Amino acid sequence: MQLKANMKKSQNCINNRYNPGVFIIVLLFLHTTSMYGQGMTRSTGLGIRGGFWKINDQTMNIRVDATDNTSSINVEGTGASLTFFSRLYENWFMESSLGSVAKVQVVEKEQYEENVHVSVMIPLVFGVRYDLLTSRLESRIQPFVCAGTGTYWLVDTAVENDNIQNTNVSTQSDFDFGMYSGAGAHVILSSWFALNFISRYHFVDFSTTNPNSGFEFGFGFCFMWGKKREIFNVKMVKVIVEDIYPAYYRFYNMYPLAYVTIQNTAGYSIEVNLHSWIDGYTDGVRQSGFIEIPKGESKDIPVYLLFGPELLKTENREPAVIDLEIEARAGTTLRKSYSAQVVVHSKNAWNGEIDKLTVFVTPDDQAIHLLSRSMLKSDSVSVNRADRKFQEARLIFNTLGKRGIRYQSDPNIPFDRDDRVQFAPKTLSLGTGDCDDLVVLYASLLESIGISTAFIDVRDPEISQGHVYLIFDSSVVPEQGSIISSNEKRYLVRKNREGVSTLWIPVETTLIQAGFETAWKAAATQYMEEGVIRQGLDEGWVKIINVK
């Protein structure tokens, strides 16, 4: 090799040495300041690393010397490697690397005499790596230890050129097996990119006395891809209530609408907090609170939503999305987002379940409260009468008939569509309603003055369409039943909310224009025929549902 003339003529010896430890310390400091997060997040990676090795029992440096007659360049123990790794399980990784490390010595004497000596070692090694920090600790520095085995191919070449015509070339090679062990660290800059630093000791020919055995100090970078490391998995999101009816919002606040099955995949217990909401429908985000899941176990976390009266403003049936954010903590905190599809129905929608019909009864509505009292005020009933509540209920029913409230039959609703129930103020304003609407109106008025009510749901197996009518508590005890009627078939004996047996009066609200007596008689007859004679109560197709 021909050196530059100015290097030949130099009178001083230039000795520049590069210490790899300085670079490692500086880079560690620069890239770890103000960092946060957790260890290796991806399962697979490919890295390039440069560094310094100890080869042929030489020092690890780069040196340039020049005197009057001799110039030399020595590059000792420098190299590079290509590394591949893939996660095996939790913090364990498989890794392999193909490297090349060289010693190059070039000496030039006089004008045409030049000696070149090149030693190259090519290690191909396979091993395992274990990351020392778990995701409990917040750090972007992930230290690790590693060990493995492989082959070490050594090629030694010497070129001597003593003049223009004479050149001698000699080559020797050796092939050895060996092993290595070491430690290092990754500095995670993003989920797909990291810097890495490593120190390994190579036992060439499985011996520390082999001249090629020694330390490797390397640094470089790697690109990562594949599945992120998880501390939990969401196995299933099961929606229990796919159809949300605004009138049932109080019910939804007490019972879960879905369940999320979460599996702990970490090697320790974690705590999980579930956030849930529906944009535009809920009154905020509801949390499950942190629930502990032991190592390796799964738990079903209930999904609750926070609904309020604002839901009753929903006019149309439309799809909606339950948004779920799962927050897991175990030293550090991880979050995942999921969603589930539901349908929000209109405020008047009813799914036909008789126990849910009671939610449409609104005795606290101001319009209903004022109307019931104005009805009683216009034709007051003595408070001393034993059958006062019976008389008040009759008065309210007859007054509704006089106000022009009338029955309008149910439309033919397809089996896959909801029934529609009007709230009491709406029925008053329209002046009409079907059987559902009228029992809701009458029950709302009676409940507003302290008269307990219940619905009788009839699902006659011989008739395709169901029917509902009402009974109310007269507060008259059975011993005084004669003050209401001498016919015992005109009332029911059942316990009231206080657990006392009283007489309950059935009323067919669809006969509101015919008057209380007609509606009472028709309902009593229907109850006797369907519930008792045909054993509808025993067989379950006639049910009594208390309005609460």
SSE topology:
Elements: H1 5-8, H2 20-32, E1 42-53, E2 61-66, E3 70-89, E4 92-109, E5 113-131, E6 141-161, E7 167-188, E8 193-204, E9 214-228, E10 232-239, E11 243-244, H3 249-252, E12 258-264, E13 270-277, E14 286-287, E15 291-293, E16 298-303, E17 318-330, E18 332-344, E19 349-350, H4 354-357, H5 366-378, H6 388-402, E20 406-407, E21 419-420, H7 424-430, E22 432-433, H8 435-448, E23 453-458, E24 467-473, E25 492-495, E26 501-507, H9 516-533, H10 536-539, E27 542-546
Parallel strand pairs: 11-18, 20-22
Antiparallel strand pairs: 1-3, 1-9, 2-3, 3-4, 4-5, 5-6, 6-7, 7-8, 8-9, 10-12, 12-16, 13-14, 13-15, 13-17, 17-18, 19-21, 23-24, 23-27, 24-26, 25-26
Helix pairs in contact: 5-8, 7-8
Detailed description of the structure:
The chain has 548 residues and is of the alpha+beta class. The protein has three domains: 5-227, Porin (Beta Barrel); 232-344, Immunoglobulin-like (Sandwich), CATH 2.60.40.10; 354-546, C8orf32 fold. It is 18% helix and 45% strand. The protein has ten helices and 27 strands. It has helices at residues 5-8, 20-32, 249-252, 354-357, 366-378, 388-402, 424-430, 435-448, 516-533, 536-539, and strands at residues 42-53, 61-66, 70-89, 92-109, 113-131, 141-161, 167-188, 193-204, 214-228, 232-239, 243-244, 258-264, 270-277, 286-287, 291-293, 298-303, 318-330, 332-344, 349-350, 406-407, 419-420, 432-433, 453-458, 467-473, 492-495, 501-507, 542-546. The protein has an eight-stranded antiparallel beta barrel. Strands 11, 13, 14, 15, 17 and 18 form a six-stranded mixed β-sheet that branches. A hairpin with a 5-residue loop joins β25 (492-495) and β26 (501-507). It is rod-shaped and about 140 Å long. The protein starts with a helix and ends with a strand.
